[in-house]
């Protein structure tokens, strides 16, 4: 779009410059002709001793020719002024189009920046939530690990008593229950480890997306500053 506008303006300027050049040549020719006629008129007038009727007619013709040349010169000046005004009008339209285009691009960049800013804020909230969830899951993991170790130690103690002496039915039931608890806690610990790894991976991806968004935002801000600088220069 910018290139088309610039090419159009350049072509129009070249046409106007060409027209102005020809108009200037025409004006210079008229001025030169006017000087010649004026010198001839003054010479003829100063050399005129006697003023018979025919000489007066010839003097009047020269004066009329001089006036006509002056009219042509005034007309040429007017045409040149009109051409200059047209050139200025085209240049002004070109500048207005450039400013409108830059303003539109600036507005688009600002809208994109606002959207990216909102996205970055949302992503930051997500990362904060994931971090809080990760902390909670880590605390739960520590708690389960503690209970798992306690149950394992108790199971080992009862198992040692089993080999050393007879166990009552209640102790056997307690041993079986502890064994089931240890197995369940082991499965829960494995599942919790997997969830922690997944949460950590999601947090890493979110952080990477946030970094990319921040870099993109800084780039857009720099582009907006450059556009504003261009508008100020023009």
Cα-atom radius of gyration: 49 Å
User: What structural category characterises the helix and strand content?
Assistant: mainly alpha
> Main β-sheet: number of strands, strand sense, barrel status?
none
Q: What's the shape?
A: rod-shaped
Pick out the low-confidence regions: 1-17
Number of helices: 3
Total strands: the figure is: 0
Q: Give the number of domains.
A: 1
Characterize the structure shown.
This protein is mostly helical. It is 95% helix and 0% strand.
List keywords for this structure.
234 residues, mainly alpha
How is the topology of this model organized?
Elements: H1 2-47, H2 53-164, H3 169-233
Q: What's a quick, concise take on this entry?
A:
The protein has 3 helices and no strands. The chain is mainly α.
